[in-house]
Amino acid sequence: MPVPPSLARLLTVLMPAMLLIPIASDMVALVLPAITREFASSTAQASWVVTGFLLACAIGIPLYGRLADRWSLQRVFIAAILAYAAGSLICALAPSLLTLVIGRVLSGFGGAAIPVLAIVAASRLLPRREVPLGVGAIAAAGGIGAALGPAIGGGLGQLLGWRALFWIMFLAALALVPALRTVLGQARPRSRARLNLIGGALLGLSTGALLFGVTQAEGVGGFTKPTSWAPLLLGAIGLSLVALRSRSAADPFVSPALFRQRGFLGAAGVIFLAMVANLSALVLIPLLIINVNGLSAGEGSLVMVPGGIALALTSVLAGRLGKAGANEGSVSIIGLALIALAMLLMSTVAGRPPLLAALAVTILGTGFALVVTLTTNAVSQLLPSELARGGIGIFQSAQFLGAGTGPALFSVLLSWRQSAPGATLNPLASVEADAYSDIFLALAAVALIAIFPALRLRRDRGRPQ
C-alpha cells in the first residue's frame, strides 16, 4: 500500500500547479493590443483569446471531480496538465488568431482540472487535521498567481513578446508532470460506477453558455443583446434539464442529495457572491487608476500587488484557523465584512491618490482569503465521501461563474452610470470618479448580501459532525 505524501511534499507540487491558472488567465489582458496588431484583428475578435480560455474552464471544471472518482487521480491530473501544455504550445506557435484561440480553449479545458483536483488531492491524501492547512496553501498560491499574472503579462510580454508567455507556461506545465507522477502515486479510483457523460456534458455546456452570455453583455446593449440573453436562456434551460435528469438517472452526474446539504449550498452561495465582488474590484480598480488617475498599465499593476501578497499571507493564517476548528461560517462573515469595508473605502477614495486604492486592495485580499480558504475547507470536510468530488466540482463552478459574472455585469453598470451623470450616492466621493464610486458602493452591498448564506454555513458547521 503506497504511503501518502507529507503536507510539505504534496504542496511543493500542488502550489506551483495552482499558480498556472490565475497567471494564464490574467497575463493575456495586457498583451491583447500586441496580439491585435500582429493578426490585424479587431479588439472584439482578439478578446476571444481571453473568453475562449474562460469558457473552456467553465465547461471543464464540473467534469474533473467525477473523472477522478472513476480513474486514478494521478492519471487524470497528468492528462489535464498535458492538455494544458499542448494548448500553450499551440498558442506559442500560432500562425493565426483562430489557431491562438483554439490553443487557449485547449489549455483552458486542461487547466480547469487544477483547482478541482488540487482540492481533491489535499482532502484525499492528507490526514484530516492537515486538510485546512493544505487548502489554505492552495488558496494562497491562487492569490500569488493573481498578483503575478499582470506583472508577468505586462513585464515579460513587453520585454520578450507575447509568445514568450506561452512558452513559459508550456515549459512550466511539462516540469510538473514527473513531480505529479511521483507525489500522487497510483491510488485506485474510489468508484467504478458508470460515468454519466450526457449529464456531465450538459452541465458543462450549460455552465459555459451562462458564462458566454455574461461576457457578451459588455458594451452597448448589455444583457438586451441577443448574443447575451440567448446563451443565458439556453444555459438556464440546460441546468433545468440537468436537474430533471439527476432525478431520473440511475447514476446522475450531480446527485440530488448534494442539494439537500444546506451547509454546502451556503458555502456555494458565499463563494459565488464573494467572487462577484472580488473579481469585479480587481478589474475595475486598474481601470480607475489608469483612466482617472492617469497611471500607466505597469504602474497600475503595482497598485494591485499588495492585495495578492495580503491574500497569500492571510490564506496561510486562515488554514491554521480551519485546523484549529474555527467555524468556517463565522470566519467567512468576518472576511465578507472586510470585503465590504474595502469596497466602501474604494467608493470614498476613487479618484484620489492611488496609495489609498492600494490600501483598499490589501483589505480586499485579506477578506477574500478568509472567505475562499474557509468555505473551501468546509466543502472538503462537510460532504460525505460519495458526494465530495462532485460537490467540489460544483463549488468550483460557482466560484468560476462568480468570477465571470461580476466583471461583465458591473462593467455594464459602470458604462450605464457614466452615460447617466448624476449625484453620487456617497457624499464623500470624488467628483472626478463619481461613477466608479457608485459601482464600488454596489459591490459593498453584494458582499453584505453574501453574509446571509454565510449564516446558513455557520449554523450547519456549528452542529456536531
TrEMBL record:
One of its GO terms (cellular component) is plasma membrane. The chain crosses the membrane at residues 43-64, 76-95, 101-121, 133-152, 164-183, 195-214, 226-244, 264-289, 301-319, 331-350, 356-379, 391-416, 436-455. It is a multi-pass membrane protein. GO terms for molecular function: transmembrane transporter activity. Residues 10-462 form the Major facilitator superfamily (MFS) profile domain. SUPFAM superfamilies: MFS general substrate transporter (SSF103473). Signal peptide: none annotated. Pfam families: MFS_1 (PF07690). It is found in: Cell membrane. Keywords: Cell membrane, Membrane, Transmembrane, Transmembrane helix, Transport. This is Major facilitator superfamily (MFS) profile domain-containing protein. It comes from Psychromicrobium lacuslunae.
